[in-house]
Amino acid sequence: MAFFSLGNEVNAETCLKIVIIGGGLAGLAIAYALKRAGHDVAIVEKRNGKLQSMGITQSPPNMTKILYRWGLKPFLDRMAGKCGSLILRNGRKEELVGIMQFDEDFLSDQLVEYLFIRTQALEDVLQKMVDDERVDVVSANVIDLQTSSETATLTIDDGRVLSADFVICADGYDSTFKHLVTEVEDERSASSTKAHLAITFILPLEVVVREEALPGLIMDPKNWNVWVGPGFILHANFSDGGKYVSVTMTSDYTKNVLPGDQTWDSRPLEYWGIDLEMFEPRVKKLLSLTKSASSRVFMTRPISDNLVCKNSKVVLVGDAAHPILPGGNQHIGLAIEEAETLRCIFSRIRHRNQIPDFLAAYEEIRQPRTAYVIQYESGMHTMLKMPDGLEQDERNAMLKQVMADGDWDHMDEDNFRAIFGEELNQYSHDATEQVEDWWTKWGAVISKNVEQREADHTKCNISYSGEVTFSQRSLL
């Protein structure tokens, strides 16, 4: 079954050999996109067997429109839930902060929906797409990665050696080979010591329905329920046509981080010492309904200035590229944007000599976008996790004023856009159009460069250490 539905899809004139380290959501999306662009793609994934994801993936309009272009609208119509309204509550008190309707007026500029998808369902369909495209998947662990001006060479734990025109690191927040791009050997020691706990679990709807303390939660499956409080944010959403309720909580973590805590694993909530008495009754009840949850600690990581190494052989995508916490609006959306960006760029390649130029284009297009989103989400999380006190009371009063009526007909649009305007700008981002605009502006320069290189039999060496942009470098 061919999923892709974009009418102007083209294949590259030169087929590149690309190896992707990591077979999670980001790796699968990148593999599918580059295979559709006409390249020979392989995935190296160290997991033995399937890791069952327990959470919900938020698909804001900028992500949804790409999935639609990939032919996934029938799947999303069947498996995803549409967000009808955001209900924001105080997580310490039984207090409604405000309601924001995601109606036709709100989404008029976006053209597509804000969706919630069970993460495992999305990973399963991406796996099927990769399988249908006959992408080679190697179950192994990469123990060494070496690069030269000509190639990238990977050694895997069964002794085999793989070569590629370039390697894409999609191996997550704790990427093994990220330092080849960032040139920071031990990012954990160089980063902030601030720790964050992420917890996610799924409850069958019939379990939630039986609880009298949760009547407001089951009124409408389109509700995006969010509770905020000092140091924490909790989301509860429906999935699979209303069969399940998925809960995700991120919170500041001040206890000692033990060995293994920075790895996803199923643990009882008691392991983390969570005091259920600090939450309002509905949050307390939701958390008490699970015996164990998928959880881990994340240490704050700096935003990387680079997404591509100096010799254009290693590329960062997904959590390896953008250290963003689970539960954020754009956590998976950024990875899907990166996949579409690489597809659109590398569907145009004519010669291997263009690889440095094309990867420079990827970095120039994506790095400002990811840095902007990460900084915004970090600021939003800080604002929503304010400690109890006057500042939190003023925040709640402001949000109540903006979200008091819950619809655009009565909302103070100026005040709303002052608070949430940047988020709307993120939703309107179109990764496909970004590449189209870039190519319209600089495609002729790229073509002229490769023709000159072919004539001179020379190779391109582009330095990423300076402050000039790719566009400027191409014209030098």
From TrEMBL:
UniProt keywords (A-Z) are: FAD, Flavoprotein, Monooxygenase, Oxidoreductase
**One Pfam family named in its UniProt record:** FAD_binding_3
Q: Known InterPro entries for this protein?
A: FAD-bd, FAD-dep_Monooxygenase_BioMet, FAD/NAD-bd_sf
- MF GO annotations: FAD binding; monooxygenase activity
Domain of life assignment: Eukaryota
- Domain named FAD-binding: residues: 17-375
Family statement drawn from the similarity comment of this UniProt entry = Belongs to the paxM FAD-dependent monooxygenase family.
Name of the featured protein: FAD-binding domain-containing protein
The organism named in the record is Psilocybe cyanescens
